[in-house]
Amino acid sequence: MKYFTTINDTEFEIIIDHDNQIRVNGETYEIDFQQLAEGGMVSLLLQRRSFEAAVEEREGNNWEVLIQGELYDVQVQDERSYQLAQARGGGTAVAGEANIKAPMPGLIIAVPVSPGQTVHKGDKVVILESMKMENELRSPRDGLVLRVNAQPGDSVEKDAVLMVIGEPEEA
Length: 171
What we know:
By secondary structure, this protein is mainly beta. It contains one helix and 16 strands.
């Protein structure tokens, strides 16, 4: 089965050949993928390297994947959905307000931005410590920091809205 995956604006063609093999942009990889009993956690063996990730579905085909302290926005489409989106001119730009949510419970280590500050897609906006790892949460869009709901030292629960990024308000 063929899928088209966009990770932080980079597109990949993924073909699942067998249970233990995939092709990414034509290159073959040996894999072992297991969903763990813990909610949203997966284990992946890729080319004899082990990874553990937190995976959460957002809306439709959009996912958030936290792996090795980095948070990735991932969109997955099967071949048919991808072709329909392309025919419609299907861009994946984030519009409107974007809520930066805690992907898991943790402690806020740093908030390097403040309300009213302009940020660009991919800018680091919150550092969250969870499971003894520092996780950098990044802006999913260009915009203005409208609200900051967490400060260094705060304990937060999963899905807590830490920050809101959007368009500058019209004067």
